[in-house]
Structure formats: C-alpha cells, structure tokens
Amino acid sequence: VRRMNRIKTRTDLDVLKKDGQAQIEQKACRLFVCSGTGCVASGSEKVYNKLCELAKNHPEIDVVFSAEEAHEADGECCKGCSGTSSADDKKSVSIKKSGCHGFCEIGPLVRVEPQGLMYTKVTEDDCESIFEKTVLGGEIVHELLYHEGEKEYIGEDDIPFFQGQTRLVLKRCGHIDAEDIHEYIASGGYQSLAKALFDMKPDDIVNEIYESNLRGRGGGGFRAGTKWKQVASQQEKERYVVCNGDEGDPGAFMDCAVMEGIPHQMIEGMLIAAYAVQAHEGYIYVRAEYPLAVKRLKLAIAQAESMGLLGDNILGTGFSFHLHINRGAGAFVCGEGSALTASIEGKRGMPRVKPPRTVSQGLFAKPTVLNNVETYANVPMIIENGAHWYRSIGPENSPGTKTFSLSGTIRNTGLIEVPMGTKLGDVIFGIGGGIKNDQEFKAVQLGGPSGGCLTKENLDLSLDFDSLKKTGAIIGSGGMVVMDQHTCMVEVARFFMNFTQRESCGKCVPCREGTTRMLEILQRIVEGKGEPEDLDKLLVLADMISSTALCGLGKSAPLPVVSTIRAFRDEYMEHIVDKKCRAKVCDKLKTYVIDPQKCKGCSRCAKNCPVNAISGEIKSPFTIDNTKCVRCGVCMDHCSFDAIYID
Known about the structure:
Blueprint: H1 10-26, E1 29-34, H2 37-41, H3 44-56, E2 61-64, H4 67-72, H5 77-82, E3 91-98, E4 110-113, E5 117-119, H6 124-136, E6 146-148, E7 151-153, H7 160-163, H8 181-186, H9 191-199, H10 202-212, H11 224-232, E8 240-245, H12 254-261, H13 263-277, E9 281-287, H14 291-306, E10 322-328, H15 337-344, E11 368-372, H16 373-385, H17 387-391, E12 401-408, E13 414-419, H18 424-431, E14 441-446, E15 452-455, H19 465-471, E16 479-484, H20 489-503, H21 509-526, H22 534-548, H23 552-556, H24 559-567, H25 569-578, E17 592-594, H26 604-608, E18 614-615, E19 623-624, H27 634-638, E20 644-646
Parallel strand pairs: 1-3, 2-3, 8-9, 8-11, 9-10, 12-16
Antiparallel strand pairs: 1-4, 4-5, 6-7, 12-13, 14-15, 14-16, 17-20, 18-19
Helix pairs in contact: 3-6, 9-13, 9-16, 10-11, 10-13, 12-13, 12-14, 13-16, 20-21, 20-24, 21-22, 22-24, 24-25
C-alpha cells in the first residue's frame, strides 16, 4: 500500500470526508463492477479488466481505477487513491471494484452512477456496449437491465428483490470501492470512531451498546453489551478484541460479503470495541477458504495503519490498537469461541470446559471481547445514531436487522438484510420470489448444521432469536437453504449429521461417539435397512448429545435430525417400512421401471447395463430385473424415448 497522508486530528478526518464527497460528485460516470466472490466466480474480473482496457484506449476521458490496480499502474497512483482528476477538460470516469450487491442470481453486476443503472449478467462481450453507449453516450443498454416478464427495472432500488429489504449493515456494500479507504471515509466511515474517541468515555460506549440490546449475529444471540461490560470490569488490564470470521455453515456467506465488500466497517466496529474495553491488540480469525476476504482485509488494515486510523496514537488521542489476521485451516469447530482462541494461540482448535469463560480468560488467558463479523459491523451505526434508534428497528428483544443468505431451490438466491421479526414467508415468497420452476415449498434449513428445519406451518414465524428458539431452531449465522417437494428430508438430516460428525473435534465422547451412532442409523435408513425403533434411538441419542456435549456446536448437532423427525416422521417411516423414498433421492430405494408403452425395443438400455439386469427382444418392450439392478441410473441416461422412470 502506498504511503498515505496520516490523519492526525478529527478535523483532518472531516476535511478528508468533504474532499472525498466533492471528488465523487465531480465524476461524470462511476462504474462499480461487483467483485464479491459470487460475481468473481461468474467472470466479473474479466468484465472489470475489459472495461479498464477500453478506458485506456480513450484519451478524451480521465479514468480512475480501483485502488489496488491504481497503485500498480504507472502514473495512476494518486488518482487511484484520492480520486482526483488531472485534467479539467476531460470527462472524468472511475471504474471500481465493489463488494457484493446481494442478488447473486443475476451476476456479474455492474452499477453505473450517478445514473443509478444496474446492469445484470454482464459478460466481456457487453463491455464495449456499456462503454460506448453509457459511459460515452449517456444512453441505457436496455438488454442488460433486469427484467421480470415484460417489466424492465432500471435501478437497483426498483428491483423487487431489494425493495423488500432494509439494508443497514450492507448499505455501503456494492456502492463504494471495496479496496479504497477514501471512499469509505467519504461515505461517513470512521466518523463513529471519532465520536467514540472524542465525545464519549469508554463506559459510555459500553453502556450504549448494552442499551441497544445488540445481540451477537454469529449464532446464539448473546447480548454483546453484556460481554463488553464483563470484559471492561476485569481487574486484568491486558485485554483483547477478537472477530470471529470463521463462517463454516454450508450455504452461508454473510460474513464473507462484509469482509470482502466493507472491511473498514467491521474494522471500525472492532476499534470502537477496543477503546470501550481499553484493549490494544486484536485478531480477525478468517477461514482460509476466503482468500478474497483475507486479501481485502490485509489491504484495509494496511491503509488504516498508513492513515493513522490503526496502530499507535489514533487520531492523536494517545489510544493505540493493533490488528492482526489469523487464517483458520477450515475446521468447523473453530467457530466455537474457546476453540477459536486456542487456534490463534497455535494450539489445536478444540473447545474447553467452561467456566472460565472468554470474557475473563479468553485469548492468551486474558479477558477477551469475541464477536462475529456482522456484530462488529453494526457497532458504528449504533454509536452514530444511538441505542434508542437501534431499538426502534425490529422486536424489543431482538432489535436491528439480520443478514441472511438464500440458497437452494429458491428463485432469487443471494444475500439479503431484513429487520429482525420479518416473517419467514415474506423472505421466501417475497424477497426470494418463491420456489424455482413453480414447485411446492417443503422446508427451509435455517442455521446450518446447528439449526433446524422449518416447514409450511412456520411461514408466519417471526425471524428473531426468541421466536425461533421456541420451535427448536436457531438463526445461527443466517444461512437459509430452501427445499422443494423433490427433497428427501431423511437425506437432508443424514447430510448435516455427516457434516457434523466429520467436523467433530473428537474431544468429548458425547459428540464424538454420539454423532457417529446417529449417522450410522441414518445411513441404514436411507439404504432401506432401517427399523421402526430407530427413530426412538435417534431421539434418545439426540437428547444425550445436546445435554452433555462440551461445546455449543456439539449440543446443537442433533437439531436437524430432531426437527426433521418431528415435522416429517411419515417420511422416515416410508423409508423404514415401505422401503420407499417419496422424493426419489435415496439411491438404494430407487426402483427403475420401463414403460412398455414408450419402450421401442432398441436395446440401448440393456447394452449399457453394467450388471445385465435388463432383458428383452428387439422391437419389443424390455424389462428390468430389480433383484439384479444396482440403481446406477445408466439405463435412464441412455434411453432416447423417456421410457425409463423411477417408481
């Protein structure tokens, strides 16, 4: 990172904010290429590079690139960092890398400001059209806009997917350069830190967070202010602030989007927490599977240090805070607090017996504030607007908003943010657009392997900590996997139990052995070898594990199994008694049948059957001997007449 001008006072920060806003207003056109992991996987890097290439071929414009590329380009560094224009007679254009907009289903996305355009599913081939028509000509490329039927949506805010949301944490994500601290400052970034340092005492900050009733967004929903109070009251003066970015739930990517798209917002929250409890060292624990998040966090930390917003004597106040990144090796159990701190210390990531708890003996046996990414990202807003404002959003006991990731058989996959207390049905059938291909909604797995299944009966359920707890489910980190009638709920339970069993650290017997026994029973059931008493065995094992496991991850491991047995017991019994899988998912319970009305007697199925289970005469219907059939599905793949089906 190029050495930046150090901010020494609050006034310097205010001046930089105003200058940045003025520079942005001077831009005739600003292109934001979504560079979250989802869009990058869909080719947004190629789109960004192509737009930059086109810009360099037009000497009549003065182009500003994303911060990182600008640092690497000859003669472009100052423009890239400060956004200044070197020629008044040229049209000023910027091409930036933004964070995730959230609507992953229609990426790669390109946002155009100040016109407010949102281009969808952009490819390299579309870049010339965007540049010639929109950047240079001021016209709209209508075929790249979002369409639903005949209706065309020009801007992001017009699209129904976004209209149903309240984006507070994610307000900046997708709207500023994810790699440039100047844009974060221009949008009001680090003003909450300045307020905390200059206008508030540490105890005032702790009380504000406590009064806001901000609850941890990483799983259990424990009150953040309580943690901060407990750490601040410890006699031990060496304290730590730790961020849990070990987002391991299948289908969850909320924290990833924050770290990639608005890393400074999370860092600002950590800085405020550090000042509140008078900690001088902090750690961000990130999954190694998030390389882009690690890259942007490193860049953000380096920029903040260079400008005097991290490190020694922050804003000339004498307060110092140093921040480090620790990459996890992918162990799911390291999402648990004591396992996470052990991993940072260089030990094997395994939970320990509590008490003592993290607030008194956490990292390096010192008092530690440990919250997740989204929790810290809420802090600057609370300090800026006050606890009363925050508590006005959502239910009294679960105020604020929550980010969720939508995946599975839902039309609109992506990242959303809604007020706590929003109805489950409003998320799935409103923002999510309902089930793909007009299929029937069956269930949603909420909270990942530590969560539970919710069904049609729960569509009016409020998405908040207390309401979900009554159903036996949890919000967890916020992953939502939506399922239709073609999903086998027994296989879903087996899948999540298989995940949990593999990820168990093995330290305690209930989790290590209990999940293994539960997985064995579930495996027997999906293979058609289950017995009626197996369901009672599963429930007994679940109760034992949840009552005696060492850590929260072990205690919640049986939730997917228990919730599916309660809601779909008849489906379990079909597997056990009838040896049938109604969703036709479980391979061992599939019965392949040839429809004699459709079969042409071509013999392709018989020729390709690996176990000679198909017989017949040419030009006459063939048959399958299911005593020989190994359910491989090769016959169905080779039938040209759709004559083979699964009964």
